[in-house]
């Protein structure tokens, strides 16, 4: 069964008081002993993947730490004020068990240098379980080569299992298919369709 966001010993008020999207203890409780990438590259201490780097949940103060600028390396972000960021952040936090955005911060510069998102969608099918979806995987250009993107994908996949998801999916461009296959993802025949109402 899916584990609610605040069922790891931390209350939702703790998240609000600390300005985090979800309790960081949820990450530290993950068993990554079966994570092939983590084990292969000796990254068992995935909270500190490299000297000076810390992996943690998104915080409201990450607006000042370049989170939106990092996302702009992936796609168009648009005009997002500090107030709009805070409102969106708090809206996500008010939906426990749905939004899991992780970031890697370079503590020497107080800048967010990598991020990825796990969305958990509750379903009535398959015995009322949940489906995970990984999105918005991006690594700052100056930090590529440190395997941070790979770490985040495997970590969020493991988190989705921990949260009881019956499957986890992602959308990617054709040139990224082989990259995601190394984490156990496989290409299915489904056709991705979309209607865009604005950019």
Written description of the protein model:
The chain is α+β, with helices and mostly antiparallel strands and 199 residues long. The protein is built from eight helices and five strands, in the order H-H-H-E-H-H-E-E-H-E-H-E-H. It has a five-stranded mixed beta sheet. A hairpin with a 4-residue loop joins strand 2 and strand 3. It is globular and about 40 Å long. It starts with 11 loop residues before the first helix and ends in an 18-residue tail after the last helix. The relative contact order is 0.16. The N terminus is likely disordered.
Describe the structure in brief.
Helix content is 29%, strand content 21%. With 199 residues, it is α+β, with helices and mostly antiparallel strands.
Strand order of the largest sheet: 1-2-3-4-5
How many distinct helices? Answer: 8
Which overall shape is indicated by the principal axes computed on the Cα atoms? globular
SS-based structural class? alpha+beta
Computed Rg: 17 Å
Q: What proportion strand?
A: 15-25%
SSE order:
HHHEHHEEHEHEH
Count of distinct strands: 5
| Model regions low in confidence, pLDDT < 50 over at least 5 residues | 1-9
Helix content: 25-40%
> How would a textbook summarize the main sheet?
5 strands, mixed
Instruction: Return the average pLDDT rounded to an integer.
Output: 88
Question: What separation lies between the terminal Cα atoms?
Answer: 36 Å
């Amino acid at each position: 069964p899916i584990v609610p966001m605040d069922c790891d010993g931390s209350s939702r008020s703790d998240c609000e008081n600390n300005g985090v999207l979800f309790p960081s203890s949820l990450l530290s409780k993950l068993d990554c002993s079966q994570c092939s990438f983590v084990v292969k590259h000796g990254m068992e201490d995935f909270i500190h993947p490299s000297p000076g780097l810390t992996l943690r949940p998104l915080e409201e103060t990450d607006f000042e730490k370049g989170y939106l600028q990092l996302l702009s390396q992936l796609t168009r972000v648009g005009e997002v004020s500090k107030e709009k960021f805070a409102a969106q952040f708090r809206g996500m936090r008010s939906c426990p068990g749905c939004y899991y955005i992780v970031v890697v911060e370079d503590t020497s510069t107080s800048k967010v240098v990598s991020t990825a998102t796990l969305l958990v969608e509750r379903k009535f099918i398959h015995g009322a379980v949940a489906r995970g979806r990984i999105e918005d995987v991006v690594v700052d250009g100056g930090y590529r080569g440190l395997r941070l993107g790979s770490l985040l994908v495997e970590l969020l996949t493991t988190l989705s299992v921990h949260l009881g998801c019956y499957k986890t999916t992602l959308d990617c461009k054709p040139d990224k298919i082989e990259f995601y296959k190394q984490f156990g993802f496989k290409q299915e025949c489904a056709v991705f369709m979309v209607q865009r109402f604005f950019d």
